[in-house]
Amino acid sequence: MQALVIAAHGSHLNPDASDPTYAHADTIRETGAFDEVREAFWKEEPHFRDVIRTLESDEVFVVPLFISEGYFTEQVIPRELRLEQWDPNKWASDGTSASQATLEAGDVGKTIHYCGPVGTHDAMTDVIVQRAETATEDPDVGEGFGLAVVGHGTERNENSAKAIEYHTERIRERDRFDEVKALFMDEEPEVDDVTEYFESQDVVVVPLFIADGYHTQEDIPEDMGLTEDYRRGWDVPAAVDGHRIWYTGAVGTEGLMADVLLERAADAGAGIGEAREAVRELAGSPAKAVAESTSRTGTGD
User: Fold this and answer.
1) Over the stretch 180-232, which tens digit does the pLDDT of each residue have?
2) Is the Cβ–Cβ distance between 238 and 244 less than 8 Å?
3) Distance from C-alpha of 116 to C-alpha of 177, rounded to nearest angstrom
4) Where are the domains of the chain?
5) Which among 260, 250, 259 has a CA at the least distance from the CA of 289?
6) What does UniProt give as the signal peptide span (predicted)?
7) Within 10 A of 280 (CB to CB), how many other CB atoms are there?
8) Fold agreement between 2-120+254-287 and 124-252
């Protein structure tokens, strides 16, 4: 038997923080690829510390639903899972290339495949592009558009910016959008000044965050000038300094994220059959996704 554990941050303050985790877990369950699919959190129940001990499967694939490698993926999750053999060097990563490490949870006799975070997997590039398609309701969006990939940015974790820049460069190499740039909340170039960095009249802004919360639903919309008060919502697109800003909200709410979770597990040796094809079919309705997003945030045309 094989199990998938999706390890996410969760929140005591934002009741919606865990919604994407549960949604993606449900999507993967529908594929039947795993005998068990479980959610686990740092700030909510069920907790990291307990999840492996509740599984019947003897082979477990743990995929962190985090954007970058760092404190949580390299220290907190392995410690709480009690993976005593863990060492960050087992990933042999430069900050964006973590793959997987196979370890034994000796107290329960299970083989644990601890995978790199979803945010640095190559498949995340497709999710960012899909997010732009969802926001514009245009599967061919690109020509005449700029794309901004937005991250938090922080001096405490240089890998945070690396993940943003990595996917930005991959999208730029596709020559699909007229302009592609990485912007940040807490370092230069800042998302507050988004219109200064683009010549394109239409700019899609995709925040590389797992869940919608304080930053994506309050800080960024107000900082970009989409609205003076986030509680009143904003238009999509919104007119700002002669540009149309198509703000998407957190990339982690995109249905195609379930595909990245599957990709991580498959890279670690999980047998998933045709689950990826099923997930891509389930996630392939931009109109439905944007309707759900605008209903949740109170924004719309």
Assistant:
1) 999 999 889 999 999 999 999 999 999 999 999 888 999 999 999 999 999 99
2) yes
3) 28
4) 2-120+254-287, 124-252
5) 250
6) none
7) 16
8) yes
pLDDT digits (tens, 9 = 90+) for 221-271: 999 999 999 999 999 999 999 999 999 999 999 999 999 999 999 999 999
**CA-wise closest residue to 119 among 66, 171, 80:** 66
Residue indicated by tokens 């497709």: 126
197: Cβ contacts below 8 Å, ≥ 6 apart: 148, 181, 183, 189
- What number does CATH give the domain 2-120+254-287? 3.40.50.1400
- Per the DSSP assignment, residues forming a β-bridge with 193 are none
- Element (DSSP H or E) covering residue 147: strand 145-151
Structure tokens that stand for 123 in this block? 């498949």
Is the pTM above the cut of 0.85? Answer: yes
* Phi, psi for residue 185 in degrees, rounded to 5: -85, -40
Residue 103, token pair as written in the block: 């370890």
For residue 301, count CB atoms less than 10 angstroms from its CB and return exposed for 0-12, middle for 13-18, buried for 19 or more. Answer: exposed
> Beta-carbon neighbour count of residue 50 at 10 Å?
13
Q: Is the domain covering 124-252 a CATH 1.20.1250.20 domain?
A: no
Name residues whose C-beta falls within 8 Å of residue 175's C-beta, 6 or more positions apart in sequence: none
Phi-psi region at 153: left, alpha or beta (left = phi > 0; alpha = psi -120 to 50): left
